[in-house]
């Protein structure tokens, strides 16, 4: 039987809209309607991932698509964004997914966003420090933050790209230059250090890691990663041997993964997990939930340094409160001095990259 011509035309029209040419990712009116229906009117936040096609970006995009607090998910990268977007967009969860490829689409990717997560940049190979990534990643973070200042200056920024100890000061300087800097809205992601610390401490204590809470302060590289084992919850005591083992393993967790991957990159899956845990905390804060507390590398007056990682309370405007360090034992006080010395140089390096 011949199909009714009228219906055929409609199918052809819809099909052209639903299957746009490969790299044309603009939204057609049909897709827009479909997107609105997919949302079901559910309230939620608009989240962009910059570097969404990378080792961290892909699983991070997948996990954010599963987050019920997200209504719109923008995936931006300089390569492969269309493929990742097509793939993730077929997941039958609430968030509407849109892809953006290349710098000419950066502004569209950022406009209207509540939260921007940045895992863009090169990862380490064995034998490298995080600081060795500065040369390439500093410029990437600068460009992306200029876009944020222009298109979504009120967005919360979760900065993952290494070296975090320098990229956060870079972001702050870019925002200051643009006149949009709000220290409450810029957070360096150190959640993976906490995730690792919880895991390794739980192993030693014979507990479920979900029941363990280890504050990790300072920064995100080597000796700047300072686990406060004296403040572990539930309250626990450790032998000196256990303290040495745990501190060393937490400080070198990133290197452990870099070496195991043997040239194929650094932590991606555990990082995506940690990034989603942290982003979810930021979104719950934005929603107005009470008592949302996580560690992050932020603008701080806890020490004499302008940036430092401690526990922070997250709220409707980003950071509501930066917590002090609490009582430290002698071992931790020595660790703190070492951490501050290295951090000071890394922060200065980031600031001078922008100020010149
Ligand atoms: N804060 C933390 O705890 C952690 C940070 N990292 C850091 O995260 C970063 C990303 O790591 P991976 O995902 O493993 O690397 P990757 O190389 O797999 O992915 C990076 C992605 O960034 C994209 N990219 C490069 N330049 C860009 C630009 N100008 N704009 C947008 N996207 C751009 C690349 O195309 C790529 O898709 C690295 O700097 C790594 O050191 C990694 C693990 C933990
Ligand atoms: O070690 C790296 O280069 C990646 C990273 O920051 C981590 O895994 O903590």
From TrEMBL:
GO terms for cellular component: chloroplast; peroxisome. GO terms for molecular function: L-malate dehydrogenase (NAD+) activity. Residues 190-353 form the Lactate/malate dehydrogenase C-terminal domain. It comes from the Eukaryota. Keywords: Glyoxylate bypass, NAD, Oxidoreductase, Peroxisome, Transit peptide, Tricarboxylic acid cycle. The keyword GTP-binding does not apply. It is found in: Peroxisome. Residues 46-188 form the Lactate/malate dehydrogenase N-terminal domain. GO terms for biological process: glyoxylate cycle; malate metabolic process; tricarboxylic acid cycle. It catalyses: (S)-malate + NAD(+) = oxaloacetate + NADH + H(+). PROSITE patterns: MDH. InterPro entries: L-lactate/malate_DH, Lactate/malate_DH_C, Lactate/malate_DH_N, Lactate_DH/Glyco_Ohase_4_C, Malate_DH_AS, Malate_DH_type1, NAD(P)-bd_dom_sf. The active site is at 220 (proton acceptor). NAD(+) binds at residues 51-57, 77, 137, 160-162, 271. Its EC number is 1.1.1.37. Substrate binds at residues 124, 130, 162, 196. Belongs to the LDH/MDH superfamily. MDH type 1 family. Homodimer. This is Malate dehydrogenase. The lineage of its organism: Eukaryota, Viridiplantae, Streptophyta, Embryophyta, Tracheophyta.
